[in-house]
Amino acid sequence: CYPSSIKNIYHSMETWQRRHSIVCDDIPGWVKKRLAELMKLSRSFAGGRRQYWTDAGMKLGLVDTKRGVRFSKDPDSSLLSDGTKSYTHSLLYTPPKKTT
Question: What is the pTM of this model?
Fold first, then answer.
């Protein structure tokens, strides 16, 4: 489900987390476990989450158009809309190594 506007990114992600992620066979078990932990944690925080997703989308250069949400600049650019370097690669999680 693609969001129809930047303000709907939160709802789309929530739907993905609560419905798709728990049944998708292509998501590794360790990722599902971490998502479940994060979802439990997020229930304890009040407010601000919707605005975070809106602000993050805008910072990445997303804009609302008649055709839905689109990038206002090349998404492969290494700079964010505010001129800072993209940090997405540092957010990638590497699963723990199995010990024998």
Answer: 0.57
